[in-house]
Amino acid sequence: MKKFLALYRMDMGEMQKMMASTSAEERKKSMGAWEAWMKKNMASFADPGGPAGKTKRVAAGGVSDVKNDIGGYSIVQAESYDAAAALFGDNPHLIMPGATVEIMEIMQMPGA
User: Does position 28 have pLDDT exceeding 80, yes or no?
Assistant: First the structure.
C-alpha cells in the first residue's frame, strides 16, 4: 500500500464567516458527520491527522509568521491516487464554501 498526504484546504475568511453564522447545534451536527466519516474510513488511515494551527515559515533568512489556506491533514493508505482520492468524495469538509482536499503521494526516501 502507498501512503498519501491529504491537505484540507479552505478560504479562511469563508471559514470564519461560517463559524460565526452557525449555531452550536449545527457545529455539533457537523462534528458528528466528521466522526461518522472517520469511523467509516478508519481502516484506510495511517494517521487520522487533525486541524492545522498557525503557520511559521522557516527560510535561510529566518522565521516569519505566514497565513495559508490549510485547515488540517490526514495520512491515508491506498493502492493508487484514484483510490486515495475516492476516500474523500463524501468528506464533510467539502460542504464548506470553496473547500478542497489535495492528495499527494508520500514518496519513500531512496535507500530507506
Answer: yes
Share above pLDDT 90 across residues of the chain, in percent, rounded to a whole number:
71
CATH annotation of 2-53+68-105? 3.30.70.1060
The DSSP 8-state label assigned to residue 34 in this structure reads: H
Q: Above 90 in pLDDT, residue 112?
A: no
Average pLDDT over all residues of the chain = 92
Rounded to whole angstroms, the Cα distance separating 88 from 99 reads 12
Distance CA 2, CA 49 (A): 17
| Segments making up each domain of the chain, as ranges | 2-53+68-105
Neighbours of 65 (CB within 10 A): 8
Contact residues for 14 (Cβ-Cβ < 8 A; gap 6+): 96, 97, 98
